[in-house]
């Protein structure tokens, strides 16, 4: 058995009726072997929201109704973030997150905020706006050009008063508010509000990576960037983050009867707020002050534009699944030296809501300190059961070990089908839909290439003109050519010369070693099907089109919609979403939390809603009833729509929906994982 196959299935015996020769069996979507630590719960109320506008509005409503407790786990927190934005005026355009927590604490709600903080990485990420840096300029607290606002953050200066005719700009007022909020929150000046920081545990991460029961491809210690100072191993092991995002409100109030919680992909910082329309530019999104997006870079500092549109999801839960959300928080809070509430318990509250016919939900995690890799278990187990379609929407799509597992499970299914007398041409096809953004960091390109190559889509990261070497494939080919030439030169040397010149010994570079491990499957040139696997793959990304604002000629009228999602839907039968990306860091290194459900109605509705939004209603892209024919038609229509939109971009025309083919021609020789 391959080491990619995890032992996640619970053995089961199903009896066959001897007369009819029929039996009824159920698919095991949940991690049943992990249910002792992560219970499979019944009768939950589950709602799934798309994008920040809707998601944060619901969170704001529930926080405003809180009476007793409010527990938040965040990767980052921006006190000045407006959760609801009702007009296009300057900051504040609505009630801000910091004030919302302060106000809740003021009405005797016990507020606990647990956030990731690690001095240098947090300053680089600026994940705690007002504490780790300036929202507008992006500089660091301890940089040589320390600002007055940053000096306030570390207590070197008192906060400036907010006067009726304050001469500061809205951005300066915003930063001043954030700085002062952190000063008060961290120094116990806000009654009933506690903040705890936590950072990654390198020893626990390394142990997780080396766990023989759940093997991993170890991060690379070579091919570093920044003059040899940064490599993949150090980034993942020594700079791990806590990436979970949950909100839990009134968990024990009235025995749990009023409890409500969220398992999120969205971060609680302002740049993650967007509408589902994903407009090219809108004052409701934050201004791209630091010129992070390609559009802002092209426009320059004199022409302001909002940050890239951003897409993600949030799940709202009421019911017994909240026990695991609470226990995850409490364990982490105590590990960060926080104190439980008096009488706080890990036991199931007696009156948590029950919805007849509601969703079955299991909470799964990555938690290196506890040796928990149930998110990986869920991804591997569920994807191996996919028979009609598998939809993945993920910020980081570079975990090639998962592709190897998927291909192995498809090979097993194909072999089983043949043994049952099904001809290969009649075997059921699996359609894999992938939506992801362009890798945000150059160092993520090599592992992304490994992933798409392993799926037979390596051409998506090569140049358009085959006569001109371009893209990541050209890097691999150049490394192979160099090695071949080195071997030829070495073989021409005499044994004496070889002994005198050991430095001439041919050595395969790290990129070439990886390339040899990643096997690109053979595809049928007519059908696009991966032979012997019954697998068809498409990989797309999302863009939006400028429909109004005149732009200079050098600026594109298209910009990416940044996919921050961590979503997988399978066969209208399974959903997982939460904080975990499809990469090694999320599966083994950082703390993560996802929810899993086998609610068929929720899965079908979400699939239609997401595919309909991405496709702009084109053809049968929504997948209709989710049957075999409907999914096959949807796959073809996705391909057609992506081609049409790609042609429209080339012709500077309008597009339908947001879908275009994924393509990246960068050629990178270092890894950041």
From TrEMBL:
Q: Which reaction does it catalyse?
A: a 1,2-diacyl-sn-glycero-3-phosphocholine + H2O = a 1,2-diacyl-sn-glycero-3-phosphate + choline + H(+)
Give every PLD phosphodiesterase domain span: 559-586
Sorted alphabetically, which keywords does the UniProt record give? Hydrolase, Lipid metabolism, Repeat
Recorded hits in SMART domains, A to Z, give:
PLDc
InterPro entries according to UniProt? PLD-like_dom, PLipase_D/transphosphatidylase, PLipase_D_fam
GO molecular function terms here? phospholipase D activity
* GO terms (BP aspect): phospholipid catabolic process
A Pfam family matched in the record = PLDc_2
Name it: Phospholipase D family protein
Q: What taxonomic lineage is listed for the species of origin?
A: Bacteria, Pseudomonadati, Pseudomonadota, Betaproteobacteria, Burkholderiales
């Amino acid at each position: 058995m391959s080491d990619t196959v995890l032992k996640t299935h619970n053995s089961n015996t199903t009896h066959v009726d001897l007369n009819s020769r029929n039996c009824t069996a159920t698919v095991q979507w949940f991690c049943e072997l992990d249910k002792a630590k992560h219970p499979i719960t019944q009768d939950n109320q589950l709602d799934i929201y798309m994008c920040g506008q809707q998601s944060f509005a619901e969170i704001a409503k529930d926080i405003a109704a809180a009476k007793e407790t409010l527990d938040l786990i965040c990767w980052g927190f921006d006190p000045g973030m407006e959760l609801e934005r009702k007009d296009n005026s300057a900051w504040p355009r609505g009630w801000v997150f910091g004030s919302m927590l302060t106000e809740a604490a003021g009405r005797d709600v016990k507020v606990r905020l647990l956030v990731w903080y690690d001095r240098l990485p947090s300053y680089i990420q600026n994940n705690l706006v007002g504490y780790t840096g300036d929202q507008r300029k992006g500089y660091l607290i301890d940089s040589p050009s320390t600002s007055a606002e940053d000096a306030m953050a570390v207590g070197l200066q008192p906060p400036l008063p907010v006067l009726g005719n304050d001469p500061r700009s809205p951005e300066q007022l915003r930063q001043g508010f954030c700085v002062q909020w952190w000063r008060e929150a961290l120094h116990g000046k806000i009654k009933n509000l506690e903040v705890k920081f936590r950072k990654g545990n390198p020893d626990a991460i390394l142990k997780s990576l080396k766990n023989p029961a759940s093997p991993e491809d170890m991060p690379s210690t070579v091919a570093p960037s920044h003059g040899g100072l940064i490599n993949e191993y150090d980034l993942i092991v020594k700079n791990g983050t806590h990436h979970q995002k949950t909100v839990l409100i009134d968990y024990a109030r009235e025995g749990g009867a009023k409890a409500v919680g969220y398992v999120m992909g969205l971060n609680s910082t302002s740049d993650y707020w967007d509408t589902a329309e994903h407009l090219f530019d809108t004052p409701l999104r934050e201004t791209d002050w630091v010129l992070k997006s390609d559009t802002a870079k092209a426009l320059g500092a004199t022409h302001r534009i909002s940050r890239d549109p951003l897409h993600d999801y949030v799940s709202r839960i009421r019911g017994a699944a909240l026990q695991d959300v609470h226990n995850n928080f409490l364990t982490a809070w105590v590990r960060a030296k926080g104190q439980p509430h008096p009488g706080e318990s890990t036991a199931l509250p007696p009156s948590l809501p029950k919805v007849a016919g509601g969703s079955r939900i299991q909470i799964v995690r990555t938690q290196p300190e506890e040796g928990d890799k149930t998110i990986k278990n869920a991804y591997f187990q569920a994807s191996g059961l996919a028979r009609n379609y598998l939809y993945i929407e993920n910020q980081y799509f570079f975990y090639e070990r998962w592709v190897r597992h998927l291909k192995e499970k498809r090979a097993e299914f194909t072999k089983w089908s043949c043994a049952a007398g099904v001809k290969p041409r009649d075997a059921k096809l699996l359609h894999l839909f992938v939506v992801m953004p362009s890798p945000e960091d150059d160092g993520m390109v090599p592992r992304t290439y490994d992933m798409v190559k392993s799926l037979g889509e390596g051409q998506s990261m090569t140049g358009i003109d085959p006569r001109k070497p371009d893209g990541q494939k050209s890097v691999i080919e150049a490394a192979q050519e160099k090695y071949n030439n080195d071997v030829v030169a070495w073989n021409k040397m005499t044994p004496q010369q070889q002994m005198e010149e050991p430095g001439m010994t041919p050595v395969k570079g790290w990129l070439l070693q990886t390339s040899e491990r990643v096997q690109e499957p053979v595809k049928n040139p007519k059908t696009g099907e991966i032979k012997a696997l019954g697998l068809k793959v498409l990989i797309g990304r999302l863009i939006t089109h400028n429909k109004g604002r005149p732009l200079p000629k050098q600026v594109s009228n298209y910009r990416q919609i940044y996919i921050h999602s961590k979503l997988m839907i399978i066969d209208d039968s399974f959903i997982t979403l939460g904080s975990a990306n499809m990469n090694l860091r999320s599966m083994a290194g950082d703390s993560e939390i996802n929810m899993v459900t086998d609610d068929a109605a929720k899965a079908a509705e979400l699939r239609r809603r997401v595919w309909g939004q991405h496709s702009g209603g084109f053809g049968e892209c929504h997948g209709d009833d989710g049957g075999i024919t409907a999914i096959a038609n949807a796959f073809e229509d996705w391909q057609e729509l992506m081609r049409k939109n790609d042609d429209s971009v080339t012709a500077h025309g309008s597009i339908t929906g947001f879908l275009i083919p994924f393509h990246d021609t960068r050629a990178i020789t270092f890894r950041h994982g």
